[in-house]
What we know:
- The complex is a heterodimer of chains A (about 230) and B (about 40).
- Chain A is mainly α.
- Chain A has one domain.
- Chain A is built from nine helices and no strands.
- In chain A, helix 1 packs antiparallel against helix 2.
- Chain A starts with a helix and ends in a 6-residue tail after the last helix.
- By secondary structure, chain B is mainly alpha-helical.
- Chain B has one domain.
- Helix content of chain B is about 75%, strand content about 0%.
- Chain B contains two helices and no strands.
- Chain B is rod-shaped and about 50 Å long.
Amino acid sequence: MDSRLLIGHAVKVVLVAALAGLYARGRSGRCRAMVAYLWAALLGNALTTFWPDIFFNYAFWLRRQAVFDVLKLLIGVEIAVRAFRVFPGARATWERLLAASVVVATTLGFWFLPRDEPSGAFLAQQPQIIAATVWLFTVTALVIVHYRIPVDPWHRAILLAFVPYLLVFTTAVTVMKNLGVSIHPAMGFLDSSAYLVLIGYWAQAAWRREESLEISPATRRALQLEGA
Amino acid sequence: MFWLGLVALSTIAVCVLLGRHDRAAVAREWDMMLGGRAS
């Protein structure tokens, strides 16, 4: 069996384990966008591994990637909104940083817009799109640490694992863009392996028992940590 | 390469910031700070 197909099947099994863990531990409601992302990943994976003749192609990959890009941004926004819901100062800072980032990103995005490769424009813009997502995650992490927010362990696991994987993905896309089609199988294998590690980390985080916090019930209520 | 560099720097920042984040310790800090004033 092709090694990429083997990794694809392994990813599918681990995705099911991650989703089962989220539902079994009652974590599915803590980040709806993440659940949507995992279901979308499972569906995309099932289509490409069970019917590769129809779905294992560049056109389907582009469509799937576009859905993932939107869901990743939604994950970043939802985590921030939930983490800062009882910290208005932190939320205001996050919104200011985000607004400034949007202005800079839009300017840079137009500046670096590819002008000579219309067919591969989406692939060419993937590093920019990923950079925007990773920057959103970074701004959120900065505000969490600066304002000493007791962030949910599941949200921390999402951010902590997603960002290194996105670095691997951006590296693979950049190398493919610069070196051409001959390098695709190697980069595809690298990306699939990193993705398997990412989903594996999320699966064990989804199943992990909740850490008990030694704080008073009043503080627990004030910080809305009732589930902890 | 610019974007790859930006993603690499952000990755280091997120891993350092959240890798050291201790939720239990942060919650205890808030507990001491609020000291029963929370309602």
